[in-house]
Each structure stands twice: as C-alpha cells, then as structure tokens.
Amino acid sequence: MPDPLPYRRPDPATQPPYDAPAYGSTHKRHPQQALLRIPTTLTEASAPRFDPAHYAPQADMSQVAGRAAMGERIIVAGRVTDEDGRPLRGAMVEVWQANASGRYHHPRDQHDAPLDPNFEGRARIFTDVEGRYSFVSIKPGAYPWRNHANAWRPIHIHFGLHGTGFAQRMITQMYFPGDPLLPLDPIFNTTADEAARNRLVSTFDLDITKPEWALGYRFDIVLRGQMATPFENA
Amino acid sequence: MTPATASQTAGPYWHMIDFPEWADLLRPGGPNEGVEGERITLAGRITDGDGAAVADGLVEIWQAGPDGAYEAGFHGFGRCATDAEGGFRFTTLKPGATPGPGNSTQAPHILVTVFARGLMKHVVTRAYFAGEALNAADPVLNLVDPARRGTLVAQPEGAGVWRLDIRLQGEGETVFLDA
Ligand SMILES: [Fe+3]
Predict the structure, then answer these.
(1) Residue B17: is it exposed, middle or buried by C-beta count within 10 angstroms (0-12/13-18/19+)?
(2) Could you give all domains of chain A from N- to C-terminal order, each with its CATH number?
(3) Does B19 touch chain A (CB under 8 A)?
C-alpha cells in the first residue's frame, strides 16, 4: 500500500495560535511545548463514514415539531472544498448556536435572556456531490461573556466539519456581515491574516434568499488539502 | 489555492452536539452492533496548566477495528463530553495494528482529539497500550522524546480498562501531534 499523501500544513498567519493572550481561557489551556510533527499515516488520512442511517440529518433549526422559533428566519448555505477547490462530497456538517436572544439551550448558560422552547439550536447536514450544504435557522443573538469588561460575542454559528481524513477535522465559527462587535472580539481577531479572518464572515446572498420567507447567507468552508507527493513530510 | 478556513474554539456551550451514547462505540442498535473483538474502556482525565479539571471538553476518538482496518466493518468514531472532574470514558473494541509509513507497522493505537473553550484549535494525541510488543517499533511513538513518551501510553487499570490522562499544559504536558 502506498503511503498516504501528507496534508498541507497551514501558514501560521491563517490559523489562530493556541496562546492568544487577549482570550483569557487560553492562558492555562494552551500547550507550551511545540507540537510534534509526524508523518501523515493511515490513521490521519482515513476518517469516519457517517451513515445517515445512524446520523440522521436535520436541516431545519427554525422550528420544533412544527412550532416556529422566535426570531428572524435565515437560510445558510455554502460549499465545503479542500484547499485545491475540490468539493467534499457527503461530508457531515454539524452546527449549533444561541437563539435569537443570545441564549444557548444549555444548562450552564446563565445569560439573562429568554429561552425559546421551539429552538434547540443544532443541525446536522451532509454535503451533496458538489460539496454544497444548506440549512434553515434563526439569526442568533449576541451574548455577553466574561473575558473582559463589557465583553460581547459577535453573533455567530458554530460549525463542525468532518473530511475524508481525520487530519481535516475542524471546528470553526461563522459570523455575520457588518457586525459592530467583530473588531472587538478576541476570538475572531486571533487569526492574524486579515483575509483568512474575513473568510469567517458570511456574506448576504440574494440568490440564497427566498422571497417572502427568509434572508440567505453564504458561508464557504475550506478544509486542508493534500500535497502532491508523499515525500514532503517532517 | 485557498488556505483552510481558520479554526475557532468550540466554546463552553458545544453540548448541543453531544450525544452521550456516542461514547459507547458498541451501543445497541449502533453501527458496530455484533462486531466481535476485545472489549475495552478507554478512560482518562483532562487537566489544565494548574492541574484543574477541564470540565467543558469535547473528546473525540478515531481508531481502526480489531483487524487493523479503518472503517471496514468497524466504525471507529466516538465522542464524549468531559464531566465535572474532567473525566472521559469510551467503550470500544481494542484496535489492531495498522500499516505505517514505508513498510512499517503501527502498534495498536487510538487517535484522541480534544476541543474546548480556550482551545482555538483542537489538540491531537494518541493512546497506545502499555505492554504491547509492537510499541517498541512504532514509527510515531519513536519520534517522541523518550522522557515524554509515557504521555501517549495508556496504562491498564483493571479488567479491560485503560487509562490515559491528558495534561494540556505544564509539568507532564501531553505530547500533541501535528500530522
Ligand atoms: Fe458561541
């Protein structure tokens, strides 16, 4: 069996560092030793196949049993590709978010904002043959956090991606265009490269928008690509 | 080429995608129902630079089946939320040896990833099994400084239970991998 093609390592400016001083929770949680570079083995180059029979898709967060959640209905759609633009087909995408008031359906979220019995805040979708996904949701609200004085997270949706190799596994956040909290957010700003950072911000898209129904936002996601030869490791 | 999308922390409220049954890879009605092998528990505790419990962590595992094959008859994926003490616990089958680079053989191992508040990117390590003869020649384990190699080796703890504690920072810091 030939060795798996190694995954490309990122330009560090395009990914956040583990140690991000402005984000307090990183202080005691970031590794201090350098990561150990290892070759891409079969372990990292293979990945789970999520059979929808065991991982049921659910693409509509805007209602529970036909009862509509409160807030502004939205459609989020985009494409999942690798760094060479190749679509990831059948990739499982998991999303979760706060409700329209900025409150998570979560026992530890004590923010003084109303819970919505008709909003659970999670979805699971699979990309199609062109790597496309879409789901329906409610525009989330901003919420306070205690990172610094008067700290508020910009509105965001959490995304979890599973690729064709476990080396592509990643979790990110999608933001909304024009959010005044973005320049103030230490989490968003940990990524040094401006273009890479701004790719976390979705764009309003009239083609995704459905007349008389919901605004549409586009969020494209890129997972690590593989190098052309197996000899560039280490 | 468009560089990969930037990672962002899973945050403290990721549990909407916690399905506690996923920590049991052998769950009744699940994708591995009826698969034969050596049943094991992989358990551990995640602590931070102060030794405090990481109580809001998301732990995922990825492994080969008992025959050493990935995703051919055994679905080797699990997820577990850490508890108030930082503990996680998976029920699975012990993986077999798998091919490594060149003509090498990788000793049985389970890839372990941790996502959490305060981790802008997940960290990745491996759980090997103490006493496994193949460990001595494992191509990844041999890249690890011998003084820190133990952080990748789960220790037996009673019948079928293997323990691997994960220290995110400081003394005894786990060796995290970049593949
Ligand atoms: Fe959040």
Answers:
(1) buried
(2) 12-18+53-222 (2.60.130.10)
(3) no
